[in-house]
Amino acid sequence: VALTKRGEFWFGKEAKDIHEFLKMYSENGYKVEEFRLASCKCSGQVFLLYADDTEGAAKRVCVACDHAHFVGDSEEYWDEADPDMFACPECEGEHSNIGVGFAFYQSSEDIRWLYVGCRCVDCGLVGVFADWKIDYSPSKQLLEQV
Ligand SMILES: [Zn+2]
Ligand SMILES: [Zn+2]
Predict the structure, then answer these.
(1) What is the number of the ligand closest to the CA of 60?
(2) 68 C-alpha vs ligand 1 centroid, how far in Å?
(3) CA distances from 130 to 2, 25, 41, 49, 86 (A)
(4) SS3 of 52-63
(5) What is the pLDDT of residue 21?
(6) What is the rounded distance in angstroms from the CA atom of residue 62 to the CA atom of residue 35?
(7) Hey, what long-range contacts does 106-111 have (CB within 8 A, 24 or more apart)?
(8) CB distance 89 to 125 below 8 Å
(9) In the chain, which end has fewer C-beta atoms inside a 10 angstrom radius, N or C?
(10) CA gap 142, 112 in Å, rounded
(11) Predicted structure pTM score
(12) DSSP 8-state secondary structure symbol assigned to residue 90
């Protein structure tokens, strides 16, 4: 098992451990069936993460090249959003790996729920920073927009 628990938080050794965390997190809800690790066009995997859990929108900014990217369909909702920036509750670090988990409607390629997971690159803490419902079709294109 790649994840370890210390106190109330879970920690992972590497970016892909976000996947395992999301599966565990969604176990009793809309289960994560697909996972994509966020990678910048410069191939960087460390980001600042901004999200509004209520509005359902997230944006990542690459630490290496400053490129900003909206996660999934977030750009459409960004004007209404009141985003918080991720800061690790364990070490206050702001740099994270980001991985997105997807749950699907039954017997469908359409996405039902999207989870924005992150892993603090300083201490390894993993968590879900925002998650929201998807209620339109087609939606599987969001898999390629993490
Ligand atoms: Zn970049
Ligand atoms: Zn941390």
Answers:
(1) 1
(2) 8
(3) 22, 12, 23, 10, 10
(4) ECCCCEEEEEEC
(5) 98
(6) 20
(7) 109/138, 109/140, 110/134, 110/137, 110/138, 110/139, 110/140, 111/139, 111/140, 111/142, 111/143
(8) yes
(9) N
(10) 11
(11) 0.96
(12) T
Preceding peptide of 138 cis, ω within 30°: yes
pLDDT band at 103 (very low <50, low <70, confident <90, very high): very high
Tokens of 59: 């944006």
pLDDT tens digits for range 14-53 = 999 999 999 999 999 999 999 999 999 999 999 999 999 9
The rounded distance, in Å, linking the Cα atoms of 1 and 112 is: 28
CA of 125 to the centre of ligand 2 (A): 5
Distance between Cα 50 and ligand 1 center (Å) = 16
